[in-house]
Amino acid sequence: MTQTLTAAPEKPAPVPASTGRAVRHGRAVPFFVVPFGILFVLFYLLPIGYAIVQSLYTVERTGTFGPAREVFGGLTQYERVFQDGAFWTSIGRVLVFGVVQVPVMLGLALLLALLLDSGLVKGRRFFRLAFFVPYAVPGVIAAIMWGFLYSPNLSPLKPVTSAIDFLSADLVLWAMANVVTWVYVGYNMLIIYSALLAIPAEVYEAARLDGAGPWRIAWSIKIPLVMPAIVLTTVFSIIGTLQLLAEPQVFRSFSSAVSSTYTPNLTVYSTSSIPNFNLAAAFSVVLALTTFVLSFVFLRITQRRGDA
User: How far apart are CA 165 and CA 159, in angstroms?
Assistant: First the structure.
């Protein structure tokens, strides 16, 4: 007679008692969220709302020298914005600027990031800091410095500036593009380089086992994996291009080709200096909407390509 032995059922592991930490963490959330919310409302939402409200008013005077008073004008200021040819010309100018300057800047940033990540460059810390140093220079100071370098009478490179007038109407836009590129290449390089450092080393090891060389790894692995960082820097660059102000404002002192309406932001600044704050607010709202639409369209296009 055989006897079947059955194993005794295992007792379930005891469930640790709740310590209540989740409740305490939940109560701590408002202490981190509320300060951000207050600052977000005060310095982001309220200024936007104030600009929209101001754009709906116009200034009227009783007689030629009568006191000025603000009255509700509806969309009167926006009609003036859409009829202002100089404003839309300035938007077209910065769009051309962005189509050329942004790919060049981000291409250089990507190249420098790949070089730092390749292991071929010695002294990575030094070069990483050296590439980033121009971003630490304030935009106005950088524009003044390059303005002196471009000026034929002040530049130490007189043979070059005498042969090529960088401040002429045909070249001054690209002279400013060079300043923006010099300042922001290092900033964008650090963003892309940080994304490269986040790629697991096992991915590179598997590619080398499959026979991929450095060029193949960079093209087929590194660039596709850092594409979200490139998209992020492109969005930042689109926003920055439409907000171009410091460089054209400084270059007005060096070149007569730069007018008070050379860029959209310079148009807003010049209009508010008249002063005509209501029209300047309408310019700002339209410019903000244009920036939002372009950034949103770019993100949608990149998302569709990523999903394809």
Answer: 11
> Cα(170)–Cα(176) distance, rounded to whole angstroms?
12
- The pLDDT tens digits of the residues spanning 38-50 come to 999 999 899 999 9
* In the chain, domain spans: 28-72, 85-307
Mean pLDDT, the chain, integer: 88
> Contact 117/193 with Cβ under 8 angstroms?
yes
Nearest in space to 131 (alpha carbons), one of 145, 119, 113: 113
CA pair distance 96, 173, nearest whole angstrom:
10
Within 13 Å and on the Cβ side, how many CA atoms surround 126?
Answer: 3
Other Cβ atoms within 10 Å of 35 Cβ, number: 10
15: left (phi over 0), alpha (psi -120 to 50) or beta: beta
Which top CATH class is 85-307? Answer: mainly alpha
What's the distance, Cα to Cα, between the start and end of the chain in Å? 69
Q: What share of the chain is helix, strand, coil (3-state, %, to 5)?
A: 70, 5, 25
Question: Six-digit token pair at 70?
Answer: 């603000």
Residue 61 dihedral angles phi and psi, to the nearest 5°: -125, 145
The owner of tokens 């296009």 is 301
Q: Which residue has the tokens 């977000």?
A: 40
Which residue blocks in 119-254 are alpha helix, DSSP H? 124-136, 139-150, 158-163, 172-197, 201-209, 214-217, 223-225, 227-242, 246-251
The pTM score is: 0.83
